[in-house]
Write a structure and sequence with these properties.
Number of strands: 20
Distance between the termini: 25 Å
CATH superfamily: Jelly Rolls
CATH class: Mainly Beta
Strand order of the largest sheet: 4-5-7-16-11-14
Radius of gyration: 17 Å
Order of helices and strands: EEEEHEEHEEEEEEEEEEEHEEEHH
Shape: globular
Number of domains: 1
Oligomer: single chain
CATH topology: Jelly Rolls
Largest sheet: 6 strands, antiparallel
Length: 259
């Protein structure tokens, strides 16, 4: 990996998944298949890898397992296949985090890129008017935070290498797909041009809106220390990410949020 996540875990490609070190806990991966996400693609009939990505929710150091449970925090890891989905990049279909029974909020997610190139796409609403739309371009070591209630999708920007990332999530995580599926995907479709670079095509199922392309914001107000793995930040200062299961702690930050 290009970035050390702060604990002993290694992504694999054949088969896709993760190898956990002796002091690390984690489940068997769940695979997401191309057929699972076809309806959200610009070209639902495209060809691509059968397994689009593998995900393992709830990993970490054995010494922190009980602490993470008590704090209602969960660390998830995902690895994407190299390649394309027709003329589109490997990506997730897009969703909103459901309202957690723990906080009565939709919860944020703190992404950290380990290897590959990512675009974290997000829009304020999964409704006819999607509100503000952002494409946040991130490389190894970058952190991107998706705020509560926003629809979002993770995109691999480089078809020549896998994308791997980790994320802090609420333990009572769950996904709502209805709004995205009703509109046949996110408000802007990423597609490769003839130079193998991503361009954006507006989804006609939404009202016309602008797309803001940018690099990640600083997010020091959300506990992010530049260059430090988010797992190591937790290890050093566990309260740093209490706002993930309790978003109301940072209610002022979510107002007029810019990723």
């Amino acid at each position: 990996m290009k970035f050390n996540p702060g604990f002993d875990i290694v992504p694999t490609t054949n088969p896709m998944g993760f190898v956990y070190g002796k002091d690390v806990f984690g489940p068997q991966v769940e695979n997401r298949f191309l057929n699972d996400i076809r309806a959200s693609l610009a070209d639902p009939d495209c060809d691509g890898p059968e397994i689009v990505y593998s995900i393992a929710m709830d990993v970490g150091k054995q010494e922190h397992k009980e602490q993470l449970y008590k704090m209602h925090l969960l660390y998830g890891v995902v690895t994407y296949a190299a390649g394309r989905l027709g003329n589109e990049p490997i990506r997730s279909q897009g969703h909103i985090h459901w309202v957690s029974r723990f906080s009565d909020w939709s919860t944020p997610e703190v992404y950290e890129i380990w290897s590959g190139e990512a675009i974290i796409y997000m829009q304020e609403y999964a409704e006819d008017n999607p509100g503000r739309c952002y494409a946040v371009y991130a490389k190894a070591g970058d952190v991107v935070i998706v705020p509560p209630y926003w629809a979002h999708a993770t995109i691999s920007a480089n078809p020549d290498e896998p994308l791997t990332f980790g994320a802090w999530c609420d333990r009572d995580y769950g996904f709502e797909y209805e709004g995205i599926r009703k509109h046949k995907g996110i408000a802007w479709f990423p597609v490769f041009n003839e130079k193998n670079k991503i361009e954006w095509s507006a989804n006609p199922s939404y009202e016309k809106t602008a797309l803001i392309c940018k690099t990640p914001a600083d997010h020091s107000d959300l506990g992010i220390v530049k260059g430090e793995a988010i797992y190591r930040t937790f290890e050093r200062s566990p309260e740093s990410f209490l706002y993930v299961p309790n978003p109301a702690l940072k209610e002022n930050v979510w107002r007029n949020y810019e990723p």
